Amino acid sequence: MNRTLLLAWITAIVAVLGSLSFSELLHFVPCTLCWYQRVLMYPLAFILGIAFFYNEQSVYRYVLPFSVIGMILSVYHYTLQKVPAFKKFESCTSGVPCSGEYINWAGFITIPLLAFICFTIITLSMGLLYKQRKP
User: Fold this and answer.
1) Which of the chain's termini has less CB crowding within 10 Å, N or C?
2) For residue range 4-29, what is the model confidence (pLDDT) as tens digits?
3) How far apart are alpha carbons 131 and 14 in whole angstroms?
4) Between the CA of residue 27 and those of 43, 73, 78, 98, 128, what are the distances in Å?
5) Whole-structure pTM value
6) 1.10.150, 1.20.1550, 1.10.1740, 1.10.3470: which CATH number matches 3-132?
C-alpha cells in the first residue's frame, strides 16, 4: 500500500465532498473561479483512486498539471478576496462575485484557501511519489 497515493486520494475525496457540501447542503452558489477549481479537483478523485488501487507510481505525470494549475488559481481567487487592490482584476462578470466570501473562519480561512491547501497536499504528495520512483 502506497501511503503517499492514499493521502493524495483522500485529500481529493475530502475536497470534492467539501465542495459538494457547500453547494448542495449549504446552498452556496459557486462563482466562476470556484467552478474552474472544481473542474481541476473532481477528476483527481477518480485518477488518484484508480492509481491507488493499481499502485500506479507514474500517476504524478497526469496529476501535477491539474494540482499545480489548481494551486495557482486558488491563490489568485484568495487574493481577489483578501486584497482590496486586486478586486479591479476580478474576472467574474455575472452571477456570484469571485471576491465574495461565504465563509471566513478565523478571519482568513475561505473556500479558495481550503482548495489551495488540498491542491498543495496533492502536489506535495506527487512530488514525494516522483522522488520515491524506481529508476
Assistant:
1) C
2) 999 999 999 999 999 999 999 999 99
3) 25
4) 22, 23, 20, 16, 37
5) 0.94
6) 1.20.1550
